C-alpha cells in the first residue's frame, strides 16, 4: 500500500479545511440565563416541530460511535447531554447505559434508570450543567 507524502504539521482538522470560528464557540459555552429562559418558555410544548437542527460535538460523536461498535450486532442505548439554542439541539456529550440489548430492542431495567439518575447527579456535582436532551 503506497502512502501519500505528507509534511508533518497541522492536525487532520486543518487538512480537511475545518475551521473553528469565534462565533462557533457559543455552542460549547453554557449560558445559565439563556437555558433557564428556554426551559421556562418551552416553545416546543406549543409546537411539536419546533426543533429543526442538531449540532453534535466531536466528543459526543466519538463516544456514540465507540458505544455503537461495542454492541456488535446488538442494539445499544445511551443518553445525550447538551442544551438548546433557539431551534437547535446541541449535543455536547454522550454516555452509555447498562442495558440488555437484543437484535431488535433494548430492555432498560431499574438499574438503567438508577444509573441515569446517578450519572446526572454526579455530573451536576462536578459542575456539568447540561441537561439530558435525548437517548
Explain what this protein looks like in three dimensions:
The chain is of the alpha+beta class and 135 residues long. It has one domain: Cytidine Deaminase, domain 2 (3-Layer(aba) Sandwich). The chain is built from five helices and six strands; from the N terminus they run H-H-H-E-H-E-E-E-E-H-E. It has helices at residues 12-15, 32-41, 43-46, 58-70, 110-125; strands spanning 53-56, 78-85, 88-96, 100-101, 106-107, 131-134. It has a four-stranded mixed β-sheet. It has a two-stranded antiparallel sheet with strand order 4-5. The longest helix has 16 residues, at 110-125. The termini are far apart. Residues 1-13 have low confidence and may be disordered.
Total strands: the figure is 6
Number of alpha- plus pi-helical segments = 5
Report the β-strand fraction as a percent range.
15-25%
CATH class: Alpha Beta
Q: What gyration radius follows from the Cα positions, in whole Å?
A: 18 Å
Sheet with most strands: 4 strands, mixed
Instruction: Please report the distance between the alpha carbons of the first and last residues.
Output: 41 Å
CATH architecture: 3-Layer(aba) Sandwich
The overall pLDDT average reads 79
Amino acid at each position: 500500500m503506497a502512502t501519500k507524502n505528507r509534511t508533518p504539521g497541522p492536525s487532520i482538522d486543518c487538512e480537511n479545511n475545518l475551521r473553528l470560528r469565534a462565533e462557533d464557540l457559543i455552542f460549547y459555552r453554557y449560558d445559565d440565563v439563556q437555558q433557564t429562559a428556554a426551559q421556562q418558555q418551552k416553545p416546543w410544548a406549543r409546537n411539536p416541530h419546533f426543533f429543526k437542527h442538531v449540532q453534535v460535538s466531536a466528543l459526543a460523536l466519538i463516544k456514540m460511535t465507540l458505544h455503537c461498535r461495542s454492541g456488535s450486532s446488538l442494539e445499544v442505548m445511551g443518553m445525550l447531554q447538551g442544551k438548546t439554542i433557539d431551534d437547535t439541539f446541541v449535543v455536547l456529550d454522550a454516555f452509555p447505559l447498562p442495558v440488555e440489548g437484543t437484535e431488535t430492542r433494548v430492555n432498560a431495567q431499574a438499574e438503567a434508570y438508577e444509573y441515569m439518575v446517578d450519572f446526572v447527579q454526579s455530573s451536576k456535582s462536578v459542575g456539568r450543567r447540561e441537561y439530558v436532551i435525548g437517548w
